[in-house]
User: Which sequence fits this backbone?
């Protein structure tokens, strides 16, 4: 086979390469190694794909919800506080994925072209072939993932055309042409789909050990592979690596984006495509009945989290980051001040009002039992799971949190710099058994999902309703209505009245659209979805973030922060540095 002359060098090499700073490469970089040296050093070769995993954006929380109508930051220097206040720019973009994702794709491209040459074992051509297939499958799946993040962050309209990003499906070197125009959004999506299909062809649905030789896939059994061979490469030791199930989920996420109003111009992806892609995963998960009963509080199910091991997921998690060790950083950032936290993310009154009455009716509906004088009574149970309102408890000792202005503690609204600005604190994602008291600090294990099954169910509900209406299945075993009913039942909505509100709108596509979007807002709050959802739906981005001020036993709804977004900001910018360096790269309109 053709020998490659690419050089594997330190990460700085590729960072410089992708920033276009070729002049920085003179004189020649030291400590570089020929690509051919990786052929007999599998760990060296696998470092390429490990770099791809390390660059996955959802390896940690972004909390970009603080730039939406769902939350604000109590730190005026926070990047999303500044974005929401009008300081989002092509040279000041905390949501930038251009450099990170393109660098990852470069490493993955080298891995794809190198894998077949690497000796992963000692003189076992069959195992080398199987390892190469797996690693190439992972690389294709990861490449689809990074394309999704590039399109989400940088796809947009330029010169009247919906554009995606530059498509690089082979490694770049110093002789490559970088001054290339962006591909159309459609062409970028087709590259993503092709990569997902390659991953599905090469990877098992899940990495699990098999019990006999007859279970070895035919393509490997025909070459003489045994059960032990298969398990060595595709068995449970590989759990949490990108699998066929994960590749299918990435495809569904991308298809939902592509079918949405902001991205549908000249785009062949349909709502039906997105629904069917999601249905494939739901079917793998036993249909609607597979919705995890404990999925609502996945972040706080201590027995499930503490007993995880060996790459196993809880029933709610499709793919997750590594658990790591016990920590208290998340709680330190977001616990209320009396629990020794910095109260960073403050949920808004806008979001609180989106939680319906316990009987399922929106608060504005005549059949709602909402009481202005007792606003947190008889509400959707998710409200108390996800948000700390005045009088609720928090922390390892279940201490009452008083957010009133005259409550006498630093938990009160605007009392000190780390106090809430809205009258609310975030509860979701946090483990209340973390103790931040300086004399007895203790951390706990946290689970960080990259993809939750509930997200997949919500993808199906949204796409199926748009494709076929609320109650038509489109050939699948369930409808949008069936999925939403199951999600609301799990949440404890309408248990005493058969969810009369849902039943009243089950044949109204427009009303069901509003409900599905609201269910997505609630179920996925604080997980980094709202910022992108508002944009792909082409909705108003400027709704003022509101809060509640409680004082003298009375309350007043207050405006907390205006949202300053122009219409063109439904799309993110191409980094200014790239547009200045490369004349062929068009900037999205308005930036």
Assistant:
């Amino acid at each position: 086979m053709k020998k490659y002359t690419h050089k594997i060098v330190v990460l700085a090499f590729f960072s410089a390469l992708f920033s276009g700073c070729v002049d920085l490469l003179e004189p020649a970089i030291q400590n570089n190694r020929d690509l051919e040296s990786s052929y007999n050093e599998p760990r060296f070769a696998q470092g390429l794909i490990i770099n791809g995993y390390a660059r996955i954006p959802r390896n940690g929380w972004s909390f970009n919800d603080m730039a939406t109508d769902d939350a604000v930051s109590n730190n005026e220097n926070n990047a999303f506080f500044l974005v929401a206040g009008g300081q989002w720019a092509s040279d000041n973009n905390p949501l930038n994925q251009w450099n990170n994702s393109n660098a990852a794709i470069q490493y993955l491209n080298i891995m794809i072209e190198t894998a077949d040459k690497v000796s992963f074992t000692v003189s076992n051509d069959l195992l080398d072939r199987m390892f190469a297939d797996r690693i190439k499958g992972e690389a294709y799946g990861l490449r689809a993932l990074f394309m999704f993040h590039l399109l989400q962050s940088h796809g947009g309209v330029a010169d009247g055309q919906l554009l995606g990003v530059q498509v690089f499906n082979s490694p770049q070197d110093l002789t490559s042409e970088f001054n290339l125009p962006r591909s159309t959004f459609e062409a970028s999506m087709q590259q993503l789909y092709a990569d997902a299909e390659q991953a599905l062809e090469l990877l098992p649905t899940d990495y699990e050990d098999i019990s006999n030789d007859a279970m070895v896939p035919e393509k490997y059994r025909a070459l003489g592979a045994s059960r032990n061979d298969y398990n060595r490469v595709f068995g449970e030791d590989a759990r949490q690596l990108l699998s066929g199930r994960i590749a299918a989920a990435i495809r569904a996420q991308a298809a939902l984006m592509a079918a949405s109003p902001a991205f549908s111009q000249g785009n062949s992806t349909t709502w039906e495509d997105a629904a069917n892609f999601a249905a494939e995963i739901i079917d793998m998960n036993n249909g609607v009945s597979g919705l995890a009963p404990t999925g609502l509080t996945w972040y706080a199910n201590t027995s499930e989290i503490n007993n995880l091991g060996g790459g196993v997921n809880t029933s709610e998690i499709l793919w997750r980051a590594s658990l790591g060790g016990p920590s208290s950083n998340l709680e330190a950032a977001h616990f209320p001040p009396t629990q020794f936290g910095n109260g960073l993310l403050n949920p808004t009154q806008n979001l609180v009002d989106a939680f319906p009455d316990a009987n399922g009716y929106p608060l504005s509906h005549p059949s709602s039992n909402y009481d202005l004088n007792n606003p947190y009574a008889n509400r959707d149970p998710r409200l108390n799971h996800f948000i700390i309102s005045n009088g609720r408890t928090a922390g390892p000792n279940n201490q009452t949190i008083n957010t009133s202005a005259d409550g006498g503690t630093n938990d009160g609204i605007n009392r000190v710099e780390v106090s809430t600005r809205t009258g609310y604190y975030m509860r979701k994602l946090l483990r209340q058994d973390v103790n931040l008291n300086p004399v007895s600090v203790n951390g706990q294990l946290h689970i960080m999902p990259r993809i939750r099954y509930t997200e997949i169910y919500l993808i199906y509900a949204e796409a199926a309703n748009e494709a076929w209406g609320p109650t038509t299945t489109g050939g699948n075993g369930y409808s949008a209505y069936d999925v939403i009913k199951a999600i609301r039942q799990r949440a404890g909505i309408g248990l005493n009245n058969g969810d009369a509100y849902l039943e009243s709108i089950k044949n109204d596509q427009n009303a069901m659209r509003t409900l599905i979007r609201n269910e997505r807002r609630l179920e996925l709050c604080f997980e980094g979805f709202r910022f992108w959802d508002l944009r792909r739906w082409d909705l108003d981005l400027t709704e003022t973030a509101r809060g509640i001020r409680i004082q003298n036993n009375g309350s007043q709804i207050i405006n907390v922060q205006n949202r300053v977004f122009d219409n063109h900001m439904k799309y993110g910018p191409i980094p200014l540095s790239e547009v200045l360096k490369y004349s062929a790269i068009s900037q999205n309109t308005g930036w």
Observations:
- The radius of gyration is 25 Å.
- The longest helix spans residues 125-154.
- Residues 52 and 142 are 7 Å apart (CA to CA).
